[in-house]
Specification:
This protein is of the alpha/beta class and 421 residues long. The protein is built from 17 helices and 11 strands. The C terminus is likely disordered.
């Protein structure tokens, strides 16, 4: 059975922007951190797709964009998402290059005026299932959880985690087909969806589990034994129904791109390599050439700079515990560390868990830092970020194994503060 992968572009973009350290192009200072994270994600997805031999091997890809801030929901409720601030100043100029990156990877890019990306995803998902295929949506957006079924799953690329019915129940306390009703009651402050005042996810899930649907609940609201809850529901039926119109995803958007146009095509190596080179994503360019092979145009040469040694003073890094532990989440940096560790003594090797690296030997850290820094961005990141673990290596690994993130702190002027990944 065919599987079609749909990418929720901005859902991933904003997460990667806030999770990854800032990056800029040397030649002109253009911010590129979000573009770099997005391109690494695309490359990994395509790499996995072409190496996949399972029955869920993706055969089609679609990259979905939001077209504008306002859409048909603003006609329903003028205050919809009115509380949203403008995108950060260093993220806005990257949107153009995100779109260019999709073309560089030879993938179809889809957006439609007056509709949100989630509506396009819902529409294509419905068409795909009708055609007898399955869907993988690259997103962890809670608003897309209403789509989850036996044929539709979400995939979080930043956690390498599939989100199915079990995860939806953990999030909302109800099954996927009941998520809309729970959201209608609880509202959503991030989207300025009112919901019913005083009712959160927990209470909403209790009510929907008892009455099964929002319509039945509102019809029998006068039977609710708790006085305050009963009076609140009776007084705010209109807000619940309005919220339902806002949270439900349209699955009948008049999209023009046919499913056949989403077929995964061969990468045009010259085009991809030229884009990566212009963006100065030298390590990703190297990985792409290693996977896809050299471009036919032999005149194209890599402009990757030679490795420069720059001594890092590891004494500037103060561990909160006795463990000498360092953390970096950059894919390219992680791959470079692995390559360099091939020649390390066994006792000096880092413990690897995904892209988490835990070093106990301080000398090997300094050696690796000196060899890895071949671009100013890495040097700046390593010197200024200073991420430290607050727990031992074993505790951190146990936390990761259970699906949680260990607690990290960022040191600034000898002050310690919480730092969320």
């Amino acid at each position: 059975m065919k599987t079609i992968t749909i990418i929720d572009t901005f859902g991933f973009l904003f997460r990667s922007y806030y999770a990854l350290p800032p990056l800029s192009r040397k030649s002109d200072g253009l911010p590129t951190g979000a573009v770099s994270g997005f391109c690494s994600m695309l490359f990994k997805l395509l790499e996995d797709a072409r190496s996949d031999d399972s029955i869920r091997k993706p055969t089609h890809f679609a990259v979905i964009f939001d077209s504008a801030r306002k859409n048909f929901r603003n006609d329903i409720y003028s205050e919809y998402k009115a509380n949203r601030t403008e995108a950060p100043g260093d993220l806005t100029p990257q949107f153009e290059y995100i779109r260019k990156s999709v073309k560089a990877f030879n993938l179809p890019s889809i957006e439609l005026l007056n509709y949100e990306a989630d509506d396009l995803i819902a529409t294509y998902a419905k068409k795909i299932i009708k055609a007898g295929a399955k869907v993988t949506v690259i997103s962890s957006d809670k608003d897309l959880m209403q789509l989850v079924s036996d044929n539709i799953r979400l995939y979080d690329p930043m956690k390498s985690k599939v989100l199915g019915e079990k995860e939806v129940i953990e999030k909302f306390g109800v099954k996927p087909h009941q998520v809309i009703d729970v959201q209608s009651l609880a509202g959503d402050s991030s989207d300025n969806i009112p919901g019913v005042p005083g009712i959160g996810i927990k209470t909403a899930s209790e009510l929907i589990n008892k009455y099964k649907t929002l319509d039945v609940l509102l019809k029998k609201a006068d039977e609710i034994p708790q006085n305050k809850r009963r009076e609140t529901l009776l007084a705010n039926k209109d807000k619940a129904l309005l919220s339902r119109r806002l949270v439900i995803l349209k699955d009948d958007v008049p999209v023009k791109d046919k499913l056949s146009s989403l077929l995964l095509k061969e990468v045009q190596k010259e085009k991809l390599y030229d884009f990566l080179r212009k963006m100065e994503f030298n390590k990703l360019l190297s990985r792409a050439i290693s996977f896809y092979g050299e471009a036919e145009n032999k005149n194209i040469k890599s402009n990757t700079p030679k490795i420069q040694s720059s001594k890092i003073n590891t004494k500037g890094y103060e561990s909160i515990t006795n463990e000498k532990v360092f953390f970096f989440a950059d894919d390219d940096y992680a791959n470079e560390v692995l390559r360099l560790c091939d020649g390390c003594d066994k006792q000096d090797l880092p413990i690897l868990w995904g892209h988490y690296f835990f070093f106990k030997n301080e000398d090997i850290i300094a050696t690796l830092f000196n060899e890895v820094i071949d671009e100013e961005e890495y040097e700046k990141t390593i010197k200024s970020t200073k991420y430290l673990l607050t727990s031992s290596v074993n505790t951190a690994l146990e936390s990761l194994a259970s699906g949680n993130s260990p607690v990290f702190y960022k040191r600034e002027d000898k002050q310690t503060q919480n730092f969320e990944l």
